Amino acid sequence: MDHSNYPNDYIRGILNSVKSIALVGASANPARPSWIVTKYLLERGYDVIPVNPGIAGTELLGKKVYGSLAEVPGPIDMVEIFRNSEAAGPITDEALALEPLPKVLWMQLSVRNDEAAAKAEAKGLKVVMDRCPKIEFGRLSGEISWQGVNSRMLSAKKPVLSGKGFQKLGLNRP
Amino acid sequence: MTDRLPGFNTLAIHAGAAPDAATGARATPIYQTTSFVFDDVDHAASLFGLQAFGNIYSRIGNPTCSVLEERVAALEGGTAALAVASGHAAEFLTFHTLLQPGDEFIAARKLYGGSINQFNHAYKNFGWNVVWADSDDPSSFEAAVTPRTKAIFVESIANPGGVIVDLQAIAAIAKKHRIPFIVDNTMASPYLIRPFEHGADIIVHSATKFLGGHGNSVGGLIVDGGSFNFAGDDRYPMLSKPRPEYGGMVLGETFGNFGFAIAARVLGLRDLGPALSPFNAFLILNGIETLPLRMQRHSDNALAVAEHLAGHRKVSWVSYPGLRSDRYHNLAKQYCPKGAGAVFTFGLKDGYEAGVKLVSNLKLFSHLANIGDTRSLVIHPASTTHRQLTDEQKTLAGAGPEVVRLSIGLEDTQDLIEDLDQALAAA
């Protein structure tokens, strides 16, 4: 995988296939990007499991916060790393020790650790680095275009409405 | 396998404009509405907190305007854009996002006269201090840099016409001093020059001109190149500091490489208010669909007219970079090989009075203060757009008493040349 240039279908495939997402580095501060991404992904129907030892045991956006990946009960489809690039190394090791293994390792925008990525790919995980799942969802669905952002997507097909209003779009635009 | 970037002609028609999600309307609808209903209270809270993408109120964003934004961002190769009420509003919101009272910015002396006025006078009220430099001499920008310099501003093809700016040379100075480089790309349009490819960080447009292209709508665009890293840079608190307006959010961090465009929208447009009307956005979008065709024809026609005037006995000089003999011809070959644009100036041997007579004698050229129309336009800057400047400022800005500016339209060149010939004969 060329980690500086992901095909749209690769990202779409990941966002379509995962359900439970353990978000390592979750924050209780609504001004922080990790809080915003947690809220957005919950609104899109993902089962986001916040992980942060500093606030373990508390509730964040109605979800119980765990102290580590190992403490999360039940299988995790995707581990999203909301820490710095260096910390991504040991977090990847924790993710790769899970049973069953997660399907996807995702490092947030500005986070990149090629060594950790190679380890995860060797174990069969799909890896995304230096991307934000909220931005990618917004880009592929067309929602981000409402903010004047260059989605780099062209289509002569209607976007797919999702949810009860007109202001949520689905991922699978033809 | 990667996703191939579509070509410029395709982007000019399609970027940002999928069929309408609700009705399937294929042309972009004019969403002539002030406000948008929320799905529920939580959805409203998410929108106001910048936690979800969507529309609230047309001063902050509107679906017709956002198609225009994405279209221009795509054509320029930027990360995001913001549509505003005019080119002046685009400049204003750009500087508002970057400057604090007491700060400085460096601007090229050869600019649209309205920009010179805005910088010299209106900005003084905000404590924003312009320092002028000479775009023909990039070292003059280097010499003007101080610890308070927050931006560098030039036009790619500069007013009042016929000047090509060495963008890469000035970008290198901006990069060396870690200062955002802003390029006004109005005269070139992204069809002729794409300033992000030459080191620009931010592009502004008067969409009133070639983007709209039909002389019917005033509008402006700010395009974020995504290349300047504002996060953690204390000189730019709008982007690097927790914002009290948004519960302590740091915009440059939260929105990554399109943080500048978001900050200009939610701290500038939201609070200062120069929103573009959806109707104007629709007309400008229609114009952009034919931008590549029009810009080529504008440039080809301008070259033909410039060549004719260069041989006319009443004309002392013609400043059009498309001409082989022009001082900017080499820069034109480097930066805009497809053509040097529609606008150029020429000098009349008989000076100010001859300029005044010429504009009144022309029958097909319209005498007005605009450029970038399908129609050919003429103006005598010394008596109109640049009249508020001193004589010295006029000459420095390329708008001396004998100067006439043309914006060549899409008519038949034979008709334009005949009109100029009869008007010059009587001038």
General description of the model:
The complex is a heterodimer of chains A (174) and B (427). Chain A has a single domain, classed as NAD(P)-binding Rossmann-like Domain (Rossmann fold), CATH 3.40.50.720. Helices cover 28% and strands 14% of the residues of chain A. Chain A has five helices and seven strands, in the order H-E-H-E-E-E-E-H-E-H-E-H. Chain A has helices at residues 8-17, 33-43, 88-96, 114-122, 133-141; strands at 20-24, 47-51, 59-60, 63-64, 78-81, 104-107, 126-128. The longest helix of chain A is centred in the N-terminal third of the chain and has 11 residues, at 33-43. The two termini of chain A are 24 Å apart. Chain B folds into two domains: 8-287, Type I PLP-dependent aspartate aminotransferase-like (Major domain) (Aspartate Aminotransferase, domain 2, 3-Layer(aba) Sandwich), CATH 3.40.640; 291-426, Aspartate Aminotransferase, domain 1. Chain B has helices spanning 8-14, 41-48, 63-76, 87-98, 113-120, 139-144, 167-176, 189-192, 237-240, 251-254, 259-272, 278-289, 291-310, 329-335, 351-361, 391-396, 413-426, and strands at residues 80-84, 104-108, 129-133, 149-155, 157-158, 163-164, 181-184, 202-206, 220-224, 315-319, 343-348, 366-367, 377-379, 403-407. In chain B, helix 1 (8-14) packs antiparallel against helix 3 and helix 4 (87-98) crosses helix 11 (259-272). Chain B starts with 7 loop residues before the first helix and ends with a helix. Classes of the chains: A alpha/beta (174), B alpha/beta (427). At the A-B interface, helix 2 of A face helix 1, helix 2, helix 3, strand 1 and helix 11 of B.
